[in-house]
Amino acid sequence: MSPPSEQGSFWSGDFGDEYIQRNTLENLLASNIHFFSKALNNISPIPKNVLEVGANIGMNIKALKSIMPHANFSGIEVNKKACELLLETGCSVIQGSIEEVKIEEQFDLVLSKGVLIHLSPSNLDLVYSKLYKWTSRYILIAEYYNPTPIELEYRGYKNKLFKRDFAGEILEKYPELKLLDYGFAYHRSNFPQDDISWFLLEKRIL
Question: In terms of DSSP bridges, do strands 157-163 and 92-95 run parallel, antiparallel, or are they unpaired?
């Protein structure tokens, strides 16, 4: 197995442990329920199985369970402590980086929320191929958007935060995907998110 990427080592270590503490606010759950109810409004039928890449402690999965109570959930997470808490949500946990894990199963919905922005740009093509392989129907991408790729400083660190048109790039790579819906989640709304843009993609069934 190849050594973990710079970003993978970063999130699997102390900084990733600290992120867990910032990700446990109770009001985040209400905001996430509102977010997913809107972003997944055009999905039909309701997914029976869902995979989240970079699931952390499962705040997104907890929200999704409230609107998809009968679905089965799986989460990929690189941080060991986060995996222990993720297990408590009742989902299946796959510990490792997105770039390294191997999954043969397909899922009705594969989602990334605030994760692709932290991956090395050099690994994105591989990650896009995995998202496409792992979904049987839908992909939800919710990340910081920018029409051209840029790098930003992240909490004093360099090479840890990137903005770009993630959805546009995966649509270019896989013409079989179509854009089903999209939107923006503003930090000043009644159910705030971190100014993320979301894109719901559908794999055409031939």
Answer: unpaired
Q: Which of 3, 13, 33 is nearest to 80 (CA)?
A: 13
Q: Reduce the DSSP state of residue 59 to 3 states and report it.
A: helix
Domains of the chain, earliest start first: 6-203 (3.40.50.150)
Contact 148/164 with Cβ under 8 angstroms?
Answer: yes
pTM given for the model? 0.87
Cα–Cα distance for residue pair 101/69, rounded to 1 Å: 27
Q: Phi-psi category of 135—alpha, beta or left, where left has phi over 0 and alpha has psi -120 to 50?
A: beta
d(C-alpha 155, C-alpha 104), whole Å: 36
Q: What is the DSSP string of 104-152?
A: ---EEEEEEES-GGGS-GGGHHHHHHHHHHHEEEEEEEEE---SS-EEE
Other CB atoms within 10 Å distance of the CB of residue 155: 10
Tens digits of per-residue pLDDT, 52-81? 999 999 999 999 999 999 999 999 999 999
149-184: pLDDT as tens digits: 999 988 777 878 999 999 999 999 999 999 999 999
87 contacts 113 by C-beta, under 8 angstroms: no
